[in-house]
Amino acid sequence: MLSAKSLFQEILANDESFALFCSIAASGESQGGWENARIAALVPESERELAPKITRHGADEDKHGRIFNALMKKRGLDPVPVPPETDYTMLLEKNGIGLAHEQLGRDERLAVQDIVTYLSHSRVTEQRASEQMDLLRKHFADDPDIGRAVKQISGDEDNHLAYCHEELLRFAYAGHGRAIQRTLRECALAEIRIYRDVSLAVMANMGRILGWSKAKSAVLAAGIHAMYAYERLGGWRRMVSLEMPERRDALGGPASAAPEFA
Question: Can you tell me the distance from the alpha carbon of 163 to that of 165, in angstroms, rounded to the nearest whole number?
Answer without folding.
Answer: 5
